[in-house]
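Quick question, first post here. What does this chain look like in 3D?
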Amino acid sequence: MRTTADQELATANQTVALFDEVNRELIQAVEAEVPVVSHNHRIKAAYDSFLPELQAYLAALPGVLLQGLGEQARNLYNAFNRGDPPGDLLHALWLPVAENGKIELEFAGEPGVRYDALIVFSEGHIKCLGLAILLAKNIAQDCPVVIFDDVVNAIDDDHRDGIWRTFFEDGLLDGKQVILTSHAEEFLHRIQQELGARRCAAIKRYKFLPHNGEHELRVDSIPPTKNYVLLAQQALAEDEKREALRQARPALESLTDRIWTWLGRRTDGRIEIKLGGPRSPWELNNKCGKLRSAVGRIAGQYAGATEVVTTLDRLLGVGAGSIEWGYLNSGVHDSQRDHEFDRATVRTIVECVTALDAALEGLINR
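> Answer (accepted):
Ran it through. C-alpha cells below.
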C-alpha cells in the first residue's frame, strides 16, 4: 500500500511538474498581472469615491454658473429692448439653479405674475434674453474678450438698435477686445456712424466676399471705412472738394439726427423746420440752425453741449447762401455747377463736421 501510494505521489508530482513546464509562460503572465490588478483595484476604489462628488458638483453647477446674474441679465435685456413699451420690460428674472430648471420672469406691467420665458417669448426675444445672460456672465467674470457671432440674426431692426447701443454707448464693454461678425450690412454701417470717427478709425475690418466660382474664401482685409466723417477727411486730404462735401452731407445728417435724439431724451425735443412748399425737402442748414438754438438753451447743464453749440455756430457762419451750403442742402445727386467750390470753405465744413463728431462723442459718453 505504501509502495502504491509512493508511486501515485510520484506520478502526481510528475504531472504537476509537466503542467508547470507546459504553462510556464502563462503562469509568468499571471504573476506579472498581479500588481496591475492591485493597481486597478485602487483606481476603482478612487473612482467609486470620486463619482458621487462629481455628480454633486454637476447638480450644483447651474446655480454656480448663474449665481447673481439674474439682475444684470434683466438690466441688459431691458437695455436691448429699450424701445419696447414700459409694461413689456422685465420687472424680475429668475435663472435656473438646477438641472431642467426653467427661466422665469415677471413683466413690469404684471408684477407678481411669473411666466416661463420659453413659452411667452418670441424667437427674437429669446435670442435677446440668451445674449443678455451670456453678456452678464462675461461682465461678471471680467473677461478681456467678447465675441459676437452674427449676434443680430433673427432680431428686428428696433432691437438691433438697442443691442448695439448697449454694446458701445453704455460703457459695459469698455476695455474689452470686441470681435463682431454679421451678415447685416446696414447694421455694421450704422455702427460705424454711431461710434464716431475716433473710435471707428481704431476698428480693424474684414470683409468676406462671395466666391467667383472657385468655391474658396475671399477676404478683403482693408475694406474702406463706412464712416462719413472719415470719408470726408480722406476726400479733403486728396483735394477732392466735391467728394468731401458729398460725404459731409450724410455725416452732418447723421450727426444732427443723433443730437436731436439726445435732445429729445432731455427736453421736449420738438423743433420747427420751415419748408418751401408741400413737396419741398427740408434744408440741412435750417435743421442745424434750429438744433443750435435748442441745444443752446440747455448747454450750461450738460458737459459737451457747449462744444456742440460752438461748432454749429462756426458751421452756420459759412453762410446759407454759399454754393457749398447749397450743395449740402440739395443732397448728393450729380449736377452741373457753374462755380468751383472754395477750398477754404470746404475745409471749414469738414473741420466742423469733425469737431461736431468729437463733441457729440463727449456729449453722449460723458
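The longest strand covers residues 90-94.
Strands lie at 90-94, 104-107, 115-116, 145-149, 177-181, 207-209, 218-220.
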